[in-house]
Amino acid sequence: MADYNLLQNEAVIIRNDNVYHPIGKKLGELGELVLTNMNLIYVRKGIFGGTKETLKFPLNQIKKFDDKPQITLGKSENGYHQLEICFLNSQEYFVFNTFGKKEALKWLDKIWELLTGHAAELDEGERSYIPGIATVADTIKNTVGSFAGALGIKPDGNKKENVTIRCISCRATLSGAKGQIVKCKYCDTEQTLK
Ligand SMILES: [Zn+2]
Known about the structure:
This protein has helices at about 100-115, 125, 135-150; strands spanning about 10-20, 30-35, 40-45, 50-60, 65, 70, 70-75, 80-85, 90-95, 160-165, 175, 180-185, 190. By secondary structure, the chain is an alpha+beta fold.
């Protein structure tokens, strides 16, 4: 456990030493995330494990909207669950390497508790951590897509054919999708394009 330089009235609530704090698109090395009653502390580790830097993010700098702390659960580009926190001066991301969403939710709730006195207000979908409902749905969609592709059905294969006809009443030129009912803009006669 690194030295967090805690204040006298500051106490550690939870910690996790499998957390990335990406710099730009780079995940960097795994570091340690610590939640105290006053700060979120990130201990960045060097390649050889030693402490490279200790970052402190005061909890009272977390933005609130409608009394709701601006913290969301998101996913990093490489699919890890991450906490996305809006501080007054910056947006910070903490990526959980292990226990994914469950762990991210735990941190979200703890931070909410400290700031509001209760757990985070999330709907059931946001709380569920049945592995990747969204991912499964995506996979099915993609599978159906490639299945159709294998049969030679293009996704836009049912696109209507465009036709140009002469108005049945005034002989003006009308065009549009075949089968569509149109009103001639010259004589107002309704007719089907065929
Ligand atoms: Zn007409």
